[in-house]
Amino acid sequence: MHPLPVLPDGRLEQRFSESKPAYSQAEAVTEANRCLYCVDAPCIKACPTGIDIPTFIHKISTGNTTGAARTIFKDNVLGASCARVCPVETLCAGACVYNAWEREPIAIGRLQRFATEATLEQRPLSSLLPAKKPATGKKVAIIGAGPASIAAAGLLALEGHQAVLFERKEIPGGLNTLGIAPYKQSGNAALAEIQAVFGLGDIQLMTGVEVVAGQGGDGKVSAESLLKDFDAVFLGLGLGADSKLGVTGEQGAGVWGAVELIERIKADPTLTLAGVKRALVIGGGNTAIDVAHELKLLGIDEVAMVYRRGASAMSGYAHELASARKHGVRLIEHRAVSEFQRDAAGKVVGAKFSRTENGKPVEGGEETLSCELVALAIGQATATQVATAFTGVALDKHGNVVVDPTTHRTGNAKVWSGGDCVNGGKEVVNAVQEAKIAVRDMLRALRSEVTHG
Amino acid sequence: MADLSIDFCGIKSPNPFWLASAPPTNSGPQIMRAFDAGWGGAVWKTLGDPITNVTSRFWSHDYGNTRMMGLNNIELITDRPLEVNLKEMYEVKKRYPKNVVIASLMVESKANWKEIIKRAEDTGCDGLELNFGCPHGMCERGMGSAVGQEPKVLEEITRWAMEYARTPVIIKLTPNTGDINEPGEAAARGGAPALSLINTVKSLLGVDLDRMVPNPRVGNKSTNGGYCGPAVKPIALHMMSQLAKNPATRHMAISGIGGISNWRDAAEFISLGATSVQVCTAVMHYGYRIVEDMIEGLSDFLDSKNMKSVNELRGQALGAYAEWGELDLNYNLKARINPETCIGCNLCQTACMDGAHQCIFIPGHTKAEYEKAGHTHIPDSIPAVPVKAAGAIGRHLPVVDDHECVGCNLCHLVCPVPGTITMTEVPGTIGHAETWNDRVAQGRDINPGSMQSTLEKRGLVGK
Known about the structure:
The structure holds two protein chains of two kinds.
Chain A (H helix, E strand, L loop, with lengths): L24 H8 L9 H5 L6 H9 L3 H11 L3 H7 L6 H4 L1 H4 L7 H13 L18 E5 L3 H12 L3 E6 L7 H4 L8 H12 L4 E5 L2 E3 L7 E3 H7 L2 E4 L3 E4 L12 E3 H10 L10 E5 L3 H12 L4 E5 L11 H9 L3 E3 L2 E8 L5 E10 L2 E2 L5 E4 L2 E4 L3 E3 L1 H5 L26 E3 L2 H4 L4 H25 L1
Parallel strand pairs in A: 1-2, 1-6, 2-3, 4-5, 6-18, 8-16, 9-10, 9-16, 10-11
Antiparallel strand pairs in A: 7-17, 12-13, 13-14, 13-15
Chain B lengths: L5 E3 L2 E3 L3 E3 L8 H10 L3 E3 L14 E6 L2 E8 L8 H14 L4 E6 L4 H12 L5 E6 L12 H4 L2 H14 L4 E5 L7 H9 L4 E4 L3 E3 L2 E3 L4 E3 L9 E4 L4 H13 L7 E5 L5 H9 L4 E4 L1 H6 L4 H14 L5 H4 L19 E5 L9 H9 L4 E2 L5 H7 L25 E2 L9 H5 L6 E5 L10 H6 L9 H7 L6
């Protein structure tokens, strides 16, 4: 396995400092000692991967940091990323019994980060998981290299299967590498974790490869051949391109898709925001909050989120919105953009808005805001074409891949799927759990094949 | 405001709070600062032939985030010349005539005792404390706890001191003995009017696992030391109470020592018979300033109990310290969990399951699941009452099965939210008060299942 790429210097991402810096051992032990060590703990139930949180925290408190990391990785092979990127406020820490007692919940994410990072600095991930089983000769094609796919590859590799990842981009990791707010996790940290997972067994990564319905060829591989050449397929496709509004002035420079802009902030050393003093972010989800927060932290004078309903209707997390607003992001509620204005040279200079009621534009109260940059965070398309290239794989009305929730198997008996392409866009931790479910069923299927064969 | 002044076998002190003979009383300037802070008295760091100390002298026993729950030291008696200590003692007593200064003494021969007692008393000190307690360093030289562990020697030296002393003599006892009554009675036989206890508990505090050397580490070695601090308070309370009850010693004034950190601890020692209390570790941790809270807290407590003087508190709890055989077997408690304040951590449940009587249930499981979990008696109804605390969604109040609850207090003790689990008195199973001693007196001291009853059943012994 060749070393993975490292993102080059000079990226905007490097200007951010961490919002939750790493704990020292002394800090971690002190925080761990606050944990009540609950039984049948609500934090475990709130974790999509079911990490035994009180146990790993207890181990930190006794100085058994390695054991803490084992407890975490046993249930979540991407436990290092999840420690940084999980919205713990709405998951484990949100369920902490201290909330019910009106006390500060345990900083579970920061403790998990301490246990995983401090341990991985000392020893490889493979030494913290069950020993890799002997090679089975079975091969699994994994489409996409986002968190669901990386987790699936690691778990399959531990079982002795070969995992081959086919990634459209040059950089693996999906949104975990290219979409996480830089103050939570850097792209290089995500890549280092992928490198650690790749050390678990026989995992191949093919980058710059697109999976297509028809004939394969240069940079293209046909779905049909994958079904033929591999014993199983896992679709971890993630989501597609940023959605568009379909209003005048949207096409052209200065109006970005939010996901695309974040990716450039994280990975592209040529991106500058020179000349941008005012930025508008359209949308009310977590991507909208993230991009607005990032733009503000990058020093843009005025960053406003424009949302067509009220704050309470936003799908973005309240704690993230509060944090962004604390840093100076403004929220403009009940407004819908009707047009982007450009000057003679085609540069974005402003946007026109209508007032809304129940999210729908109404007459009267139109206004214009000046801006030099717009980020559209109104959702992403689904990776429909790749999914349907596999015979028998069906999509629901939202364009998400249909699976049996207990097995994550699709309509094609050889194809499993998980992550954003199935759940429509959730957290890294959800992707890991769905990969776990899929791999568990895949292993059963691969075993029975051996028996029958 | 209640009167905190005491008369300790003739020694008048403005309050019962004294500093124990230890690093906080190493020098005159320290003791004067302590008196300025409000301490009523101080027992000077033990005088004798000056010793040489080692570097690295203390180590702490921490528990969770609590620092210095216990403290261990391998420091010896004073390392300062006798002249210097005596001069400072004179100065302190001259400048603070109302505060109590006790000279702690430790020497070997009768001639030395005679000499040091005279010279100490010449400073104007209020009394003498004979250090028969130090369990490290000095005992190997035949002093300290080596005396405290030999009642005959203790009695002999006490007699010498009583012969020479003009001021009250306090015998400081070591807890490193099988029965504290023996040295206590020896001190009484020797004629001493007062006791102080406990000195430190012989200890090895821990091991530096990277070096395989115990702590505190002196180069590549360590040695056993004396353990003190909050962790030893229960041991001290027991030993002191034994002597406060003992007919041969109960006439003696007692200065209680061992883990006293605040007014509440002090009140407990006084309620079990102490006239004064001595403090060391808490001052080593937080400084002389803690005495403000001790004075204020004790005074307000006495006011709240309508006691005019701290002397009214002395020994109040001693009568209730009984032998096990005098306890009422009919007394019955059951745990009650408050649905308003429970946060659903279930610590009570696991403590009861593995450490007590398997009588706490988490609702929402089948009979088979409860059996598999280890419950041996399953009540007919295990109601699922939601935990009411905001944010405790989906959690249920643990349910106590009264049938199996023996009222042991464990759940009450592990519950992190004060007042949530209360132990409630319910009618007893016998129907009237009855002690084990009653049963012994009536010849009913054999329980079903005992070896005696088995032998009787088999006809191997007569009833």
